[in-house]
Specification:
The complex is a heterodimer of chains A (316) and B (256). Chain A is mostly helical and 316 residues long. Chain A has 14 helices and two strands. In chain A, a hairpin with a 2-residue loop joins β1 and β2. The N and C termini of chain B lie far apart (58 Å). Chain B has 256 residues and is mostly helical. The chains are: A mainly alpha (316), B mainly alpha (256). The interface between A and B is large, with 153 and 127 residues.
């Protein structure tokens, strides 16, 4: 029996289904139908998204965007323990509280390292294409069970907590996936080709330094737009890196690709389009300014980008 | 000018930039950009929806890392995990925000460099452990701190996790980015060993650690100056609170 990533999609779908059920039946919720409906649609896409016609899924995605865009996804009132109770519990449980939290990374690492050994009857236990994610999922399940044992609480309560945090994050949960989808649509529609065309036809890159700056800054800027260095890489490396840096200026190809990708990562630090790294943490940490994480990262990103330009210029 | 390249799809990029600058809801902006881009590429309406649907189903792996740990993290928070993380760090006298984050940056970058990217992350490490510890370290050293400073410290914790991950993982030979780069070069007719690509990432990885580490060191110095803190003496006008009092300052983080 192979643990494939599909089971994790089903698990998330079931958790979202429970969340939406709790919201729909919560009479104190001010937007119970629109919020509950939003999570219900998301649950359906996780459970059977690959079986539905793509155009129907596309329509559902538009519906989700409209619900979220017009303020339909709001948090309900959920019960939490009082602060005194939490402090008393922290005192009683002490460092034991760390155990389930650290179980997630521990199981992820063990799974990643042992994946090659975990083969039963010729079938690998963990989906070989998604070893880290599947190990991470197993880690989360083990951690919930451990946490229930240690705190003498129930799996039902953990579902209530999942609902509380999912609602607190709101539509920000869906944003990384929306942006991932947009990246695929962009590349389908030829946005990358258009950008490379603009850059190479408008800037004269006969000077070595100009070519290096265009390539590194271009990687960063294009990553800011796409939200993902991987999407920007083929465009800039194909448009500028190989033909001009390697072809004209005889750059070392390994240095060109490695430092180009890192320049893209500087862009990732700067953009709301990289939602899972910048916007979701702001929501998770309950920061009033959704761009607070990006603002902290700006000086680091720009300094590393300057360092990259210098490194590539002198190493290539 | 070649005429084969259409510049019309760039209008989607314009929609994104305008939407974010005008602060429309990002979900709406992204959906609109996807529709406009595919329309500009002359996709018929049915194909526009299909492109969005296919892309959305293909990227279902992205939110897993956020959604799966919520149940256990929420349960542990209910039983005082964040309060305990703050109390725990306040027992370490030499801990400051900057030092804590520099140690985390180093560990995150080194573990990512050997492929152990799962050791950190915002939902499972930054929210329940690192951010409360950063706040706890500041409260122990400076006494009561403002909400604005709390938010700043949390943002620093998140940023440190990002920097450590990004500039560590790319020097791990088996990481997807290295595969992407060598495959790309191979298709362009250039063959390079993955190890060489990884090796050329090391100078940037070191620069990233030095640059961000220096900023964290400066953060400590600036906070010391702001609170009038001198080593060995408590901050002017305040006495360091007991760890339990320090914890009570963070009640507001857990409102429903």
């Amino acid at each position: 029996m192979i643990l494939s990533i599909t089971y994790l999609y089903w698990l998330v779908g079931i958790i979202l289904l429970i969340t939406s059920g709790m919201i729909l039946s919560d009479k104190t919720h001010t937007r119970r139908f629109s919020s509950g409906g939003f999570w219900l649609v998301y649950a359906v896409i996780f459970l059977i998204g690959d079986k539905l016609p793509p155009a129907l899924v596309g329509a559902l995605v538009i519906v989700m965007a409209l619900i979220a865009g017009f303020g339909g996804v709001l948090s309900g009132k959920t019960q939490t323990l009082t602060e005194e109770a939490r402090r008393a519990s922290a005192k009683r449980l002490g460092n034991k509280l760390f155990i389930p939290a650290l179980t997630i990374p521990a199981v992820t690492v063990i799974g990643t390292l042992l994946a090659k050994q975990l083969v039963f009857g010729g079938t690998p236990l963990l989906d070989p294409k998604n070893i880290t994610l599947v190990s991470f999922g197993v880690g989360c399940i083990v951690a919930v069970l451990l946490a229930c044992l240690l705190t003498r609480d129930t799996v039902g309560q953990s579902m209530k907590e999942a609902r509380r945090l999912t609602e607190a994050l709101g539509w920000a949960v869906v944003l990384p996936q929306m942006l991932g989808m947009l990246g695929l649509v962009f590349s389908d529609a030829g946005v990358g080709k258009a950008v490379a065309h603009l850059v190479t036809t408008t800037i004269n890159m006969d000077t070595r330094l100009v070519a290096v700056v265009v390539y590194c800054v271009g990687m960063a800027l294009f990553t800011v737009i796409m939200g993902n260095g991987f999407a920007a890489f083929p465009v800039m490396a194909g448009g500028v890196g190989v033909p001009i840096l390697v072809g004209v200026h005889h750059a070392n190809p390994a240095a060109m690709v490695a430092i180009g990708m890192f320049s893209g990562y500087c862009g990732t630090l700067l953009t709301p389009m990289a939602a899972n790294f910048n916007i979701v943490p702001a929501a998770l940490l309950e920061l009033p300014d959704k761009n607070a994480v990006i603002k902290v990262q700006v000086p680091t990103a720009l300094s590393i980008l300057a360092a990259n330009i210098a490194l590539l210029y002198f190493m290539m | 000018m070649q005429t084969t390249v259409s510049l019309w799809p760039l209008i989607g990029v314009a929609v994104i930039i305008a939407g974010f600058l005008l602060r429309f809801n990002p979900m709406l902006v992204v959906a609109a950009a996807a529709v406009v881009t595919s329309y500009a590429a002359h996709f018929p309406p049915e194909k526009i929806l299909a492109a969005i649907g296919t892309g959305f189903v293909k990227t279902r792996n992205l939110p897993l890392i956020l959604l799966l740990p919520l149940a256990v993290i929420g349960l542990l928070e209910r039983h005082g995990l964040r309060e305990h993380a703050q109390a725990w760090i306040s027992k370490i006298q030499s801990a400051t925000v900057g030092r804590l984050l520099i140690v985390y940056l180093l560990l995150r970058e080194l573990t990512a460099a050997v492929g152990l990217t799962g050791l950190g992350g915002h939902p499972q490490m930054v929210r329940p452990l690192l951010a409360p510890m950063a706040e706890g370290a500041a409260v122990t050293r400076y006494g009561k701190i403002s909400d604005a400073l709390r938010y700043k410290l949390r943002a620093y914790a998140a940023a440190t996790d990002n920097v450590g991950l990004f500039f560590g993982e790319d020097i791990f030979v088996a990481f997807g980015a290295i595969v992407l780069m060598t495959t790309f070069l191979h298709e362009a007719g250039i063959d390079v060993a993955p190890l060489r690509v990884a090796a050329f990432g090391i100078p940037t990885a070191i620069c990233a650690f030095l640059i961000h580490g220096f900023r964290l060191y400066r953060l400590d110095k600036n906070l010391d100056r702001e609170f009038g803190y001198n080593a060995g003496k408590p901050a002017i006008g305040t006495t360091p609170p007991q760890s339990t009092d320090a914890v009570s300052d963070d009640s507001r983080g857990d409102q429903a």
